[in-house]
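Weekly modeling sync, notes
Attendees: AB, CL, MP (scribe)

Item 1: holo prediction request
CL wants a bound-state model with flavin-adenine dinucleotide before deciding which constructs to order. AB pointed out that an apo prediction alone won't tell us much about the pocket. Agreed to run with the ligand included and paste results into these notes for async review.

Input as submitted:
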Amino acid sequence: MKIASLFSEKTVFSFEIFPPKKTSPIETVYDTLEALQDLKPDFISVTFGAGGSGNGHGGQTVAIAELIQNEAATPAVAHFTCVSATASLVATEVEALRAAGVETVLALRGDLAPGQEPADFRYAYELIPRLKAAGLCVGAAAYPEGHIDCLDPRENIRHLRAKQDAGADFFITQLFFNNDDFYRFREAAESAGVAAPISCGIMPFLGKSQIQRMVFLCGSSLPAPIIKLLAKYEDDPVALRQAGIEYACNQLVDLGRHGVNGLHVYAMNQPDIACAAAEAVAAAGLR
Ligand code: FAD
């Protein structure tokens, strides 16, 4: 069954992982996959060139998506960025995905290095029809608080709608820490005719520098309760990490109770995060 059709049946529960650094053997991801498989997610997505992995075009994303499907017996979503790719490179990579049996992709623009110019694609919505034409099920990114380069919330929604119009079957959001931001965004998206399911991407904060880096990269806001936790556990990294995981679990449960389409956990290749999230969601009767 195509991943997009799962959303009409239930709250889809999924994880994101990233490929190991290019200098590390692919086998380093085996333990993560084994632990995640036991939690029976509806899919596992694997990033493309993100997470400091040194992976990009020609990297390990397709090979890991294949492992997710064949070794972890779980549907895979391969992230796919386009801004530095030519159309012919995209065609080659689509062939590699098909050869690996991967049917679902997350179509993304990606980010350019300073001074770099886009090749054949400027925006994700231009990539989506290529992937659809290849018979793939296609997800795209959504930004509850707006993309970092997009200052106008109405533009943000227009760009979301353009991705749906280009053929996106579902969306996964950027991380956010205040669920009310998501509920407002969902309402605005629905009012603009966005009917494709939107899965909520949730990342626990694990430490002060990690979260500062993340919010400066993506423009998500840090609500007061998190700032208070960061202050309270400033000198206790273990307690801070635990508080971050608990905060994320509470967010997931609240979102599930508000009838969201999907819960997507940025597991960061750390099985205890995935386990805590799966337990919280199950304990709340959400799966
Ligand atoms: P787009 O939808 O193309 O948007 C990019 C910017 O252009 C936005 O500011 C948007 O508002 C604006 N825009 C869109 N259309 C137009 C238009 N017609 N005219 C003017 N402006 C426009 N990055 C990676 O490198 N690898 C990954 O694996 C990865 N995974 C991700 C997973 C998720 C769930 C999310 C939310 C992001 C991920 N990213 C990843 C980051 C992503 O590549 C960046 O956020 C990137 O800057 C934007 O990608 P996009 O697909 O949303 O681009």
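Recorded for review: Residues 47-50, 79, 81, 106, 108-111, 123-125, 141, 147, 149-150, 156, 159, 162, 172, 174, 201 surround flavin-adenine dinucleotide (CB under 6 Å).
Action items: CL to compare against the apo run; MP to circulate these notes.
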